[in-house]
Amino acid sequence: MKAVLLEDVKKLAVRNIPDPVPKAREVLIRVKAVGVCGTDIHIYQGHGNWNFDTRGRAIPLSENPQILGHEFSGEVLEAGNGVKDPAPGDRVLCDQGENCMSQGRSPLCEYCASGDSHQCLYYGEHGVTGLAGALAEYICMPAVNCLKIPRGMSFEQGALVEPLACIIHAMDLVERACARFTFSGRHPIRTILIAGAGPAGLLFLQYLRNVKRFEGRVLVTDLRETCLNLVEKFGGSRLAAVRGEFAAAVINSTGGDRAHCLIDACGSADVLAQAPGLLHKQGTLMIYGAGHKDKDIGILGPVFFLEPTLLTSVGASGGFDPDGRPATYRRAVELISSGTIQVLPLVTHRYASLETIHRAFDTDFRRDDYIKGMLNLN
């Protein structure tokens, strides 16, 4: 089969490699749609590497090339021994993380047992930690990681279930946090600031308005006009950012109150550097974006003085349904299929072949009109 290999930092190549063969408990999937995630861009640029050896050393791409692509959907071609669901011909989307349930381990490790499957002691992630991702013609996945795409839902929508599931998990963490400011309680959240109006930021915004029914102020900042236009469409207040300085705009917009919850959805170190001017004392800081660079961790010193509730979120944990499949992904499927959350407006650039996907990484993600890239394979 053909696959796109990241053979070194900023070095993508289309190669012919052996077709994957499904093992017991797995299915072979013909890839149909793959979203290009910010995490993919960070790995490509060399700003992140989550493929570690047993000693915790990050394995260089030159030593172990990576097939990227962890937001994907496709059609089942073949089922391994013992697999009855899904069946050949089924359209599916996948949780890209392999955990105890994926691997048939019993008993479940402490993290899988508590619903924190993306922290599984035996975790591996397709397209991120060395396991083959979906920028290829085919991929093998554990059957229990696969959810059928509902009738009327496209492959593109199926691929974008994964990023929405991650947003759901992050918001679950915010709701469970022992924070001063909450959605309901003695000290209600009045203002939320989302830094970054890319796919994650726009999904956070829709989740707050359409699922949480949050009626307070939601400020969303970004450098790109295309993104800010969608902020207004989805019910947020656009806040144009001047590179390196937008704290004054937040202070002015809130009458000096600042944000009770700050969501870093862009992975910019500038957001953390400016957080003392953005966040209300004892507010909640959710660091969701990845790829922070060019700043020392010391920038958080002034933030700590505010005594914030500091949260980080990785993946889409949330426990398993009775059939062993990921509950958070099912929640995301329902929100997309019902029209509660719109994901297709986020797709601004589409690619029709593995040979052209490099454009998303090389040039397109820097364009002012780029929000989300999507590979479509027929």
Give an overview in words.
The chain has 378 residues and is α/β, with parallel strands linked by helices. It has twelve helices and 17 strands. Strands 3, 4, 5, 8, 9, 16 and 17 form a seven-stranded mixed sheet that branches. It has a six-stranded parallel sheet with strand order 12-11-10-13-14-15, with helices on both faces. β10 (191-195), α6 (199-211) and β11 form a beta-alpha-beta unit. α5 packs across α11 and α8 runs parallel beside α9 (269-278). The two termini are 14 Å apart.
Looking at this protein, list some descriptive labels:
378 residues; Rossmann fold; 2 domains; Quinone Oxidoreductase, Chain A, domain 1; 12 helices; alpha/beta
Biggest beta-sheet profile: 7 strands, mixed
The named CATH superfamily of the largest domain: Medium-chain alcohol dehydrogenases, catalytic domain
What is the terminal separation in angstroms?
Answer: 14 Å
Record field, number of beta strands: 17
Radius of gyration: 20 Å
Number of domains: 2
Helix content: 25-40%
The assigned CATH architecture of the largest domain is Alpha-Beta Complex
Shape descriptor? globular
